[in-house]
Design brief:
By secondary structure, this protein is of the alpha/beta class. The chain contains 14 helices and 13 strands. This is Aspartate/methionine/tyrosine aminotransferase.
């Protein structure tokens, strides 16, 4: 059996969610919203399922969705994309897999920022890539020249860049994005940009896509997620956007992974991407209100809450909250003894270092957030 997979541990998400069910805990660990998603988009999918076409759609995606993606990014990010430069995939993770399998050759070095989404490293290794890590540190999680320099070399082929960053909830600023673009140009590297949280940003911040930086148009793959945009994580509709030389080879990998994506969901996403800006601003405002509710409640209970700029997560600093415990131990004890699920940020590092930051999901109804605050306060009293 393939050691890349046999040596992988059970994911911390599975562990914490299983323990949360077993102990009747409030689960702020799993990253999905309580809200069912916009009704009009769901109805469009239902109508297309009942009365639409249900055989194989085009491998690269329905023309109406590819055009809608290009128009959406023109409208919101001022990008000049052609529909032919858009590939529809069965979720953003499949877009990542197709991109990495298509663009990495055995022995290529791949730069990864950690903490990182846990799918990146197995996929890089499956493609034969050699990971080179850039460690980002709390509380600011900043990209610096000193951090980038040791990770890049003449063998660097590709960079995987997640912005906003899960789990740190960090939105990288213009200076950091420009610095990374400079390194990509200098080392002739391709950037695969996981931008699934691009609409889930707060405090008036604006997402800055790496593909818009000078010299990056021909060397960037931009990946988005309808599941994140519309708060329906189970839909698994993603899209990869890139210049023809890149998207054509990514499509060849995609055709042997999932080949295509349910046509009724594609029809609904094409409709949804054309929604008025009020939907997107309203969605952000709702999540920001939930973020602020959780942050205020935890702060009142003595927790040190790190700034959350994007995605629907916020992190707590355990030592600064008076808890002398590593994050993995805290999260396992909290779910078992205090009845609340959280995710240790150490799980998002390759070497599993000892870290002291825990991630919480605030995409929940008020009652769940309030119960989570109460039980986290209980954990703090127990463990501090």
């Amino acid at each position: 059996m393939n050691p890349i997979f046999t040596q992988l541990p059970t994911t911390i998400f599975t562990v914490i969610s299983g323990l949360a069910r077993e102990h009747g805990a409030v689960n702020l660990g799993q990253g999905f919203p309580d809200d069912p998603g916009p009704e009009d988009v769901r109805l469009r999918a239902a109508e297309a399922l009942v009365s639409g076409y249900n055989q194989y759609p085009p491998m690269t995606g329905l023309p109406e969705l590819r055009a809608a993606v290009a128009e959406h990014y023109r409208r919101f990010q001022n990008l000049d994309l052609e529909p032919a430069e858009v590939l529809v995939t069965s979720g953003a993770t499949e877009a990542l897999a197709a991109s990495l399998l298509a663009l990495i050759s055995p022995g290529d070095e791949v730069v990864l920022f950690q903490p990182m989404y846990d799918a990146y490293l197995p996929m890089v290794r499956l493609a034969g890539g050699i990971p080179r890590f850039v460690d980002l540190a709390p509380p600011d999680w900043r990209i610096t020249e000193a951090a980038l320099a040791p990770a890049f070399s003449p063998k660097t082929r590709l960079v995987v860049f997640n912005n906003p960053l899960n789990p740190a909830a960090r939105m990288f600023d213009a200076q950091e994005v420009a610095l990374l673009a400079d390194y990509c140009r200098r080392f002739d590297a391709i950037a695969v940009c996981d931008e699934v949280w691009e609409h889930v940003v707060f405090d008036g911040l604006t997402h800055r896509p790496l593909i818009a930086e000078p010299g990056m148009r021909e060397r960037t793959v931009k990946i988005g997620s309808a599941g994140k945009i519309f708060s329906m994580t189970g839909w698994k509709v993603g899209f990869a956007c890139a210049a023809p030389a890149l998207i054509e080879v990514i499509a060849k990998a995609h055709q042997f992974l999932t080949f295509t994506t349910p046509p009724n969901l594609q029809t609904a996403v094409a409709y949804g991407l054309g929604k008025d800006e009020a939907y997107f601003t309203g969605m952000r405002a709702d999540y920001q209100r939930s973020r602020d509710r959780l942050a205020a409640g935890l702060t009142a209970e003595g927790f040190k809450v790190l700034r959350a700029e994007g995605a629907y997560f916020l992190c707590i600093d355990l030592p600064a909250s008076g808890i002398d415990m590593d994050d993995a131990t805290f999260c396992l004890r909290a779910v078992k003894e205090a009845g609340v699920g959280a995710i240790p940020v150490s799980a998002f590092y390759a070497e599993r270092p000892v870290t002291t930051v825990a991630r919480l999901c605030f995409a929940k109804v008020d009652a769940t957030l309030d119960a989570g605050i109460e039980r986290l306060a209980k954990a703090r009293r127990m463990f501090a």
